Amino acid sequence: MQDHLDSTAYSENRAEQRDRLWSLIKDIRFAMFTSQDENGHLHAWPMTTQNKTIDEENSLWFFMSLRSDPVNNIEDDPVVNVSYADPSSDSYVSVSGIATIVNDTAKAQQLWSKMAEAWFPTGPNDPDLALVKVRIISASYWDVKDSKIVQLFKMAKAAMTGTQPRNMGEHADIRMR
After folding, report:
1. Which residues are registered as beta bridge partners of 45?
2. Does pLDDT of 168 surpass 70?
3. pTM of the full predicted structure?
C-alpha cells in the first residue's frame, strides 16, 4: 500500500509541476530553440511555441522551415534546449528534450495560426513547413515573486553581510520521464 501512495503522490506532484511549467511559458511569445550543429557548436533561434497546452506526451510544438539550420541539426542530433524568459515578471524556464520532425498534416492544421501564415503563406500544407515536436525530458524554472525593490534589498543585505542572497524566488527541476 505504501508504494501505491508514494507513486500517487509522485504523479500528483509531477502533474502539479507540469502545470506550473506550462503556466510559466504559455504567455511567452518567443522561445530560444537551441540545437547542436555537426561541429558540436550550439546555436539558438527565436521560435514561437505553437501548442496551447503541453500535450499528453509532454511535448512542445514548433513550425520551422525544412531548409533551416535547426531542422538540419535535429536530423543529426535530436537533443535540444528550449529556453523562455519573461524579465518583466522575473520568470525563466529551460527545457531539455528530444526533437523530431513530424509529418502530420492534421496536427499542423490543429496548431495553425495567422502568425504562422506570415512564415508559411500557403498554409499548413506549405511544402517548406516542418512540424517539430520536442518531447520534454526535463525542465528547470526560476520564478521570482518579490518586487524589484525587495530583490535589491535582499541582494544589498547579502552583500553587506557577506552571505548569499536567500529566498530569491521559486526554483524547481522537473523530470518528465
Report:
1. 33
2. no
3. 0.80
